[in-house]
Structure formats: C-alpha cells, structure tokens
Amino acid sequence: MISLDKLKQKLAQPCNIVITTHHKPDGDAMGSSLGLYTYLIQKGHHVTVITPTDYPVFLHWLPHNSEVIIYTNHEAQSKQLIKNAALIFCLDFNSLSRINEMGAEVQNATALKIMIDHHLEPEDFDDYRHWNTKACATAQLVYDFIVNYLHDSALINKEVATCLYLGIMTDSGSFRFPTVTSDLHRIVADLIDLGANNAQIHQLVYDNASEGRLRFLGYCLSHKLEVLHEFNTALITVSKADINKFDIQTGETEGVVNYALSINGIKLAAFITERSNEVKLSLRSAGDFPANEICKKYFNGGGHRNAAGGQSTDTLAAVTAKFKAILPEYKNLLLQ
After folding, report:
1. What is the pLDDT of residue 91?
2. Which residue, of 83, 132, 276, 307, has the fewest CB within 10 Å?
3. DSSP H helical segments within 130-173, as ranges?
C-alpha cells in the first residue's frame, strides 16, 4: 500500500486517470464515478470513466454521462486507456471479478489502483484504499476523500454535488436504511447547499419509469410473489420470458425486491431472475438477518448484511428450490 502523501504527489500533476466501477452500475456506482470524474478534471487530469457494461437509462442525465465509455462496446479503446493510465480508481467494488473481463486488464495495468468502497472483505489488488463498511454509499466516501483527505472542498461544484447526492440517495434507500447517520445528513445538507437539487434528482430517478416497467412491477406482485409465512420470507421469481414480455431494460428490475420486504412481518426477501446465461439473486433483509451470508455461502456472491446479491448457473427452478431449502437453517433468526 502507498501512503496518502504519495497519492497526493501523484495527483499534484496532471496525468491519465481511469475510473471504473462494477458491472451493471447502479446509482451509487455512476454517481460516485462521475462525481470523482468532475472533481479530477477540474485539477487538469485526463480522466475517463469506463463501465464494464451498460447501465440504466434513468441515470443517463447525470453530468458528463455522454463521456462515459462502455467496455463491451469499445473494448480496444478501453484496453488502451487502461494500459496508458497512471492511476485507476476502482469505485463501489472490491473484487476484480465484479468488473468482468476488465478485471484482467486492471490487474495487469502498471497504474496505481485506488479503491474507494464500502463492501465487506476487499481483495488485495489495490495500492491505496479508502474503505469503510459503515458508510452507506461509495459516494459518501468520495465526498470524504475529497473534503477530509485531499482538502479540496472548494472543488465540489454543483455537478460534483449532484452526482454524489444521487449516489447517496439511491444507496441509502432515500435515506431510510440503518447506515444513515446524522453525519450523513450533514454531508447531504452540504451537497444541497453546493447546488444539488434534491427534489429534481429524486424525480429523475424514481418518477421516470417506462410503462413496461410499471406493468412488470404489477405482474410481479400479482402473479410472481410467494410468501412463506413459516419463515417470514417472501420471494419473487422471474423468467427470461417474463423479462422479454415486458421489454425490461437494464436497471428496470431495481427495487422490486423491496416490495416483498415491505410486507408486514417479512424479515427476508428475494428477487430471483433468469438471465441469458445465469440466474441472479437479490436479497434484502430486516434487522440483523445476514442476507450477505446466504449469498456468499450458497450463491457465489456477497454484499452488505441487509442487501446482497449472488448468481448461479443452475436453472431458475433449481435456484428457487435451493433458496427455499436453505431457509430451515435460518429459521430461528427469521422468526426472532
């Protein structure tokens, strides 16, 4: 690991920088990436944000979104940018497997790798780490990095504030999760003072659904929701045919699992989706129930205690059956 002073020396002179984040980036991934991007270009650096895959259309309004490069669409260009970079910022992920094919390129790059993240159990691929599992969002840590470590609060302009507010808002569940603290509210207040239009940001993210997405949500709740009262668990399973029927695009399944968790008495909720070559699981839990443990132990995943994800190459039916078979192991915790 390098020291903060060494990193500051690197940042003191303009250089080539790549910022990347996890595949299928969410609001925190894109908010933190574009917030950091906007800060760094003010310092005179040559900066590129490269995402491993596409991301939701409802995030495309973010400042400088048009300059983002999607690796799967521009592979050769992305590889060259990574090769030429002096610094690579890795945001909102702590395992190179989370950036798919880009992982090998970043691993082999001569650039210094800086991780800014809040997930559990980071891998040791980075040279500098700004990491805190108690932070509600990586965007919160980017703010902390700029303000309290680099002492550059004057460069948090309206665009930076907008991006970081978006990241914090989405990863905190609109400020309702247990990771939301009084300190976080003070950060958010500062971002609003610096120009983040909180009402507009909320509208652009949460009141901007396609008709297909809304009909899909109704279909999930009326036809695909299963409640297992004996385990205080609810699950929604969705096939590829369901996805295609409603023409669901990247990011449009985000948040569906929360409706299952919102049922009175439910402690664990699962959204299980069949994709083209695997089945994805998204788990949410209430209280101290370890959703991340289930994902890590049984579904090649991980995440936070109350919000985790995993995947499997088994069939949708097999994954659903496996999930249900696991529940007796956690019955005491689920019924507490």
Report:
1. 98
2. 276
3. 138-144, 158-171
